Fold this sequence. Notes:
The protein has 399 residues and is of the alpha+beta class. The chain has one domain (2-395). Helix content is 40%, strand content 20%. It contains 13 helices and ten strands. The strands form two sheets. Strands 1-2-10-9-8-7-6-3 form an eight-stranded antiparallel β-sheet, sandwiched between helices. Helix 1 (2-19) packs antiparallel against helix 13 and helix 4 runs antiparallel to helix 5 (80-88). The longest helix is centred in the last third of the chain and has 33 residues, at 363-395. It starts with a helix and ends with a helix.
Amino acid sequence: MQSSLAAIRISLDTLFARAHPPGSATTRQEVDDGDQIDAMRYVARTTVGSPSLKRIAMLKALVVVAAASGLLIGAPAPDPRLAALFRQVALTPEQEAAIDAGRPVAKLLSWGGSSEVFAFGAVYIHGSPASFLNAAREVNKLAGTPGYLAIRELPAEATAADLSGLTLEPDDLKALKSCREGDCDVQLPATSIRAFRDAVNWSQPDAAAQANTLARGMIAGLLREYRRGGNTALGEYRDKDRPALVSEQFETMVGRTAVLPDLLPELRTYLLSFPAADLAGADTFYYWEKVDFGMKPTIRVNHAVIYHPPGRGREISVVAIKQLYASHYFHTALDVSMCVGSGDRPGFYLLTLKASEQAGLTGMKGSIVRKVAVDKIRSSLERGLATLKSSIEQTAPPR
């Protein structure tokens, strides 16, 4: 089950890495030079006409999903209102029929700017949503599955000791030694860049240990400040010459959903106003991971939420994974999956929407990277859904 879930999660993460595997003629540096993206960072994402505003479409689709889900309760499939939802993501009648028949469908969505990637996938599963939700919750079991070098859930009051398994890669250590604001091969805010320069004695034999200790403390500090101050504590990346600010884009994106039918207001408020806003009944947790999808191993820190909207019983369940930090590639990322009951039909629909804003996808060279990469995304997500469906149907009876 965990390997199936890993396949779903990595489908977008392979975008850059699979386009340029190690040893390919085009290097990461060649793509980076002069082609870095303008701004931003995870579920969170500023002025009219900017690519980040186009991401509002993502949360709009999530609200539409929730709306359709509410209409589906007690209705046999196929349902014309589910078809209306699928039309929001421009599925063909053939794709709609395939999903209802239990065949996975995935597609790339033409939303956002050139640095953004959106993918939608769906499949009907003859099994229990609990199987998927349990796998999503047990993140530690992803360790050792394809793409995951390390992963560990963090306590809410995490300390550096809770990150003892986190280590920086040799290439990252080499880069950090010469990092300067606006010129660093690791995504970092300015204060962290200065800290690695000033607090680590790079001439000493234990320089790597010093840097790892510093990194663990920084991540524990990030989580502590995020839990205290919310999105504003996420700061901005200053590793390139154009800062990437997190909180402004996040507030713009989520705030714009107020003009839409607001069927999950408490979830929207929680995403926008955390930690001032609470989400009663939700299971929220944090974890760090080191992932390797073919290019540079990347450290990420995430805030995850598993939520059952009140009044729906267990007919609707939502899993949202919000990236708080990534050492490479991902300026922002959001992964939302929804389990939707189908009334008197055994099983459930699994709907997933993945979004990310990534470095190296803009400019002339970046456009080439994007074209090669996105061609791989749809098939990868579809295969992941198929594997997950098979795993659930083999291990758990329909509810």
